[in-house]
Amino acid sequence: MLAAEVTDIQRMEGQEAKKLADFEKLKNNQREKKKNKQLAHKKVVARQVAKSYLANLRENAFQHLSAVSFYTNTFKIDVLDNDVVPWLHDRAFEFIQDLEVQDSVPSSLILDHLVSEEQEHILTVQAEKDRKQKLREEEEKEAAIKLEAKNARRAAREEKRRKEELAKLRAEIESNFITKGTSLSIIENQELAGVDGYGESRPIVGGIGGVLG
């Protein structure tokens, strides 16, 4: 019984060892494949870089030599630098001056227009101010005339009221005193006047109730 168990255990250990060995072998194979794949990729990239660099090697070398003035361009020196470029500079300078003059013309026109508009606005505002001032003066004058007429009507009503009161008072005096009293020739010759002589054009001596003389 014990020997069978030992044999079974050894068999299981052998199986585990075999699985471990297979796993390590598989892992090494995968690592080798990955390494080979990376190496192949690097070779492809290096080939593409070398190809792209060598494809334009002649043009790049020529451009570099031209940039460092290895080759002398007589056309550039004799024609472009000595003839074309100075002429182009002069024409560009004249063109810029013409542009400056053309730019100043609209600015002057706009400035003149703004000044004209400002003056017209000032005149318009002043005219409106004068119109409102004249209208205000006319309204004040009309209000003064209305007030004067109102005061005159009030004075006329007051004068009428005073005359009516005076007439009423004279009627009461006539009814209550004069008609009931004894007639004296001296008093009859005197005209009845108010205590203050209001409305009289001759000198009087006033007293409460009538004229003394």
Question: What is the ordering of alpha helices and beta strands?
Answer: HHHHEE
N-to-C CA distance: 181 Å
Secondary structure category: mainly alpha
Record the strand order, biggest sheet: 1-2
Largest sheet: 2 strands, antiparallel
Poorly predicted tracts of residues: none
Q: In angstroms, what is the radius of gyration?
A: 67 Å
Percent helix range? over 70%
Number of H- or I-type helical stretches: 4
Mean pLDDT: 78
Bulk shape: elongated
Beta fraction of the residues?
under 5%
Tally of extended strands? Answer: 2
Question: How would you describe the overall organization of this protein?
Answer:
The chain has 213 residues and is an all-alpha fold. It has helices at residues 2-55, 57-67, 74-178, 185-188, and strands at residues 206-207, 210-211. It has a two-stranded antiparallel ribbon with strand order 1-2. The protein is elongated, with a radius of gyration of 67 Å. The model has no long low-confidence stretch (mean pLDDT 78).
